[in-house]
Description:
Elements: E1 7-10, E2 13-21, E3 26-28, E4 43-49, E5 55-62, E6 65-67, E7 78-80, E8 91-93, E9 102-110, E10 113-124, E11 131-136, E12 144-149, E13 158-164, E14 178-180, E15 187-190, E16 199-207, E17 210-218, H1 223-269, H2 285-308
Parallel strand pairs: 2-10
Antiparallel strand pairs: 1-2, 3-8, 4-5, 4-9, 5-6, 7-8, 9-10, 11-12, 12-15, 13-16, 14-15, 16-17
Amino acid sequence: MLWLFSYYVGTLGTHTEIKRVAEEKVTLPCHHQLGLPEKDTLDIEWLLTDNEGNQKVVITYSSRHVYSNLTEEQKGRVAFASNFLAGDASLQIEPLKPSDEGRYSCKVKNSGRYVWSHVILKVLVRPSKPKCELEGELTEGSDVTLQCESASGTKPIVYYWQRIREKEGEDEHLPPKSRIDYNNPGRVLLHNLTMSSSGLYQCTAGNEAGKESCVVRVTVRYVQSIGMVAGAVTGMVAGALLIFLLVWLLIRRKDKERYEEEERPNEIREDAEAPKARLVKPSSSSSGSRSSRSGSSSTRSTANSASRSQRTLSTEAAPQPGLATHAYSLVGPEGRGSEPKKVHHATLTKAEPHPA
């Protein structure tokens, strides 16, 4: 609780100055000795002159009646503090508001005599809870600014920064390279951060009415750790891309093999139909020899064609014992896609004997 009085006496009476914190109770003194002989003619009046020079009546006593609800701002908050008829006309205000600040005058009149008292009331407002903020990058070697400010409160407001001790051996003072902005005492610069700069910092805002505080935590990070994290993330992304690429190549290879397997039968079906087999009758031994060579050549041609179609067709009849050596040759397959038929000796036509 804050009490501050100053007294001086002049021709108009006693002057008093009082400072009191808002939301508290205050009593403005006013004493007299004019009510004892004749109480019926006693008049008491309290006047307020605010900081803008406007004057208004706060409370009065006249004709044995008290009138206290004279202003909306002070309605229900003002009253005589004691027995004003017995000589104590002090004024009580509760709870106190910043708008109550100003110069109060107490005028007591009885039977042509006057007594004046003047009180200067100053209402103090304690700082509102400040807001702590942090500006800058919390990495080693960088600078950070701590900001603290109260939105309201009686000027001047003094700001004070300190470090809160959380462990044994920690220093409550700011780091050695800290600087205070004297043009704005609520700002403190933490220069060239180190890991030892990490901790809890408290700002206290105070004035004549009281003080309020807030805290902010500073956590300094390694620059190397940030690079390591970035490198790890980059490596993970690159690894994922590489795996995706390998899977894609494997899928493409499988698709290509399946496509080639499906196209190979199509190429076989599109080949031309192989020529049908035919019998060639030799007319002489020389022609028989030529027919034999022709049959052998035709057989090789047929075999080559069948190789492209993945078929094998090649037979040649063998002469029975005692018969002429003239033979007939089978040339070519009978049709596309069918198995080659073997030529039996019973199906061959006997060749004419050639004279010796």
